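Quick check before the chapter quiz. The format below is the same one you will see on the exam, so make sure you can read both the input and the output lines.
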Amino acid sequence: MSVRSVLGRRALQAVCVLAVGALALTGCSNSEDSGPAVEKVKVDKVDSIAAQLPDKIKQSGKLVVGVNVPYQPNEYKDPSGKIVGYDVDLMDAVAATLGVKAEYLESAFEKIIPTIQAGTYDVGMSSITDTKEREAQVDFATYFNVRTQWAQQKGKPIDPDNACGKRVAVQATTIQDTDELPDKSKKCVAEGKPAIDIKSFEEQSAATNALVLGQVDGMAADLPVTVYAIQKSDGKIEKSGAAYGAALYGWATPKGSPLAAVLQKAVQSLIDNGKYLEIAKNWGVEEGALTKSVVNGATS
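Here is the expected output.
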């Protein structure tokens, strides 16, 4: 299951801002996005978990986090150039639980895991899917259940379970493009129905724009990406059907390090005290909220 071919579910580009009152998306930018106004959730240190941090992190007082932007709403830059997003707020809450600060360093997505292995980053945070392949290289503390969510034009329904003959937009190389929609299309053909007309776009913004303009009948993307696109669409698109599938986003840490377990305990603490769900609701991604964080939760 992957966004980048077989490498993971992380998308290459961001959902761009839909211009209010216009049927066109603005261009993507790594350095600007108005984004939603989201308040930080106050979190207290939990001494018993903080005490389990590796000595290096205790002594420095910081978690060095490698991150690739943009991928709204999870991680991107606001107009001032500050890295923000759902992942950022959750990681900041985890850092507060551990009594340290998170320091975010930009990285190319494909370089995050090698840089963790080299010891430059403590954590990799970039909507990375926890997979068996990746678990051979790093360990993961899971924090989000990523599923597929379809969208449709307002008032123009499309059934994700019966989209035979329909035009459906996806971002190229995502799991929706490489696996999910081809499988649904094969089922259509096997039943004597027309295949799904899969429209692949290099950027998620282009896929979203095609739906807004009515050039396609539907769109399929990761749940938080679709939710964010809907929020930014000025009411022009809406959810179609329920989210489905199950994969886990995880924070990558060095293989065999105690850090993964510490992060997992911090996430679970936030789940148990309600702060985790509060952060998810602030970003409108509560449908993917976990009730239990684990270390290395991949099933494939």
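If your answer matched, good. Residues 77 and 83 are 4 Å apart (CA to CA).
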